[in-house]
Design a protein that fits this description.
13 helices; Farnesyl Diphosphate Synthase; homodimer
Chain lengths: 278, 278
């Protein structure tokens, strides 16, 4: 299997579903909806929804049951990017090689775009999505709650709050680790957990994939830190951070070996997260 | 029944539940959680959750099943106030007689407070809350989806976007009406719908209470407009707006008369919305 072609194909499928969830440019109010589409349909790698779909596939589930929730995670990722780019946060003027949402549409619209994308994600997570059985319904509500926990004040938003607090301060190792686990780690980890849950995996399978997700999430942030010489890499030094990254890659792969076949994509994604250059 | 005493009692009950949903000051990150508590536990009138509880009572439901969802609506109301007060939006420095969240904690924290409150609302809406039966579970997920629809880009957030767009422009009647229906009307209307749905009301009952909610939501915004000489009152004139408000009060009450008894509180709230002076 050509992994890059596979990821491209998955990504195209996800983009199509994302496009169908976002109200069209004609929908009132048109500027807000245009800005939402601009923020989301701008060529991200769609790692989080792809991970959710793979977790489902690995436990032998029907990926069609996971696709809407997987795309909801991407909506949440894009809401967080849009808010993080705002002047009162990281004040980033570009995103994915073009003007950040607030540079193109104004701060007020960018703020509302983030709010609307987060809300849309929960609308998708709480829609029936073809679900019929009581068991599926229970799993789905469970998944929606897990997502809310992962991205709230004790998850992703909490990580961003601590990151802002230490923007101009020296941080200790515990703080660097807290940020890594929460700021980007929480959403990646919950993508695996949600995929495995909706795919009908056993509790043991769900937990193993969740741990894989936690390791990959940490790996993702540490690689970012190494590239930017920030956070974790600044606290423990680049060479130590690289060792830690290698160790995390090993731990992530160890979690998925018991699944035997079907794990090629999850292994490849872990490798990709370590070796990516942006 | 002394309506004011009754509302105070309900409001105290709601505040207690809200306090239990918000992570304590000790929970990490402490500043974010302190700011969340500051934004929510600051003496609002709790009209939305009270309306949800009354809708449930009117259809003969068990209000304990509605209390968490009712409080989630109040979390959403407070997220929207916190974001609306930000400098890039309405730039309000005070809220409920004290410093707005961003004045006390900074813009970055206030932005994250709003994000976290919205997320917490959906965590509550998607938690089991003692629900056991498949029917209750289905109603609950349905309610969560209705809330997401009401407060997203085609609901409350859409109303705020249009309001921002026309901040310094003359607006026509259609625009003023759009803002009134969406900006504050949508959340009030869905409070009734959710209360009646979770209370197990028939579709006919749910729709009647939903219409009552729409009229009261509109009434609420028109009274605001009359007090501020803004929006709707500016477009059609204060005396016409007052006539419209009286008409809405009549329509709202007409929707609940078929329920016979138990509607005293809903009637009193409609009266209160018309006669309140802030």
């Amino acid at each position: 299997m050509d992994i890059n072609k596979y990821l491209e194909k998955q990504s195209a499928k996800i983009n199509k579903v994302l496009g169908s969830f976002l109200p069209g440019k004609g929908a009132h109010p048109s500027t807000l909806h245009e800005a939402m589409r601009y923020a989301v349909l701008s060529g991200g790698k769609r790692i989080r929804p792809i991970l959710a779909l793979e977790a489902c596939r690995v436990v032998g589930g029907d990926t069609r049951k996971v696709l809407p929730a997987a795309c909801a995670l991407e909506l949440i990722h894009n809401y967080s990017l849009t808010h993080d780019d705002l002047p009162c946060m990281d004040n980033d003027k570009e995103r994915r090689g073009r003007a950040a949402c607030h540079m193109k549409f104004g701060e007020d619209i960018a703020l509302l775009v983030g709010d609307a994308l987060l809300t849309l994600a929960f609308k998708v997570l709480c829609s029936k999505n073809g679900v019929r059985s009581a068991l599926d319904l229970e799993r789905q509500m469970n998944a929606a709650r897990l997502v809310a926990e992962a991205v709230g004040s004790e998850g992703m938003v909490g990580g961003q709050a601590v990151d802002m607090e230490f923007q101009d301060k020296d941080m200790d190792l515990a703080t660097a680790e807290y940020i890594n686990v929460h700021k980007s780690g929480a959403l990646i980890a919950v993508a695996l957990r949600v995929g495995a849950t909706l795919g009908g995996g056993s509790e043991k399978q769900v937990q193993a994939l969740y741990r894989y997700g936690k390791y990959v999430g940490l790996l993702f942030q540490i690689v970012d830190d190494i590239m930017d010489r920030q956070g974790y890499a600044k606290v423990i030094g680049v060479s130590e951070a690289k060792k830690e990254a290698e160790a995390l890659l090993g731990k992530a792969k160890a979690e998925i070996t018991p699944f035997g076949r079907r794990t090629a994509v999850l292994e490849a994604i872990a490798d990709f997260v370590l070796t990516r250059d942006k």
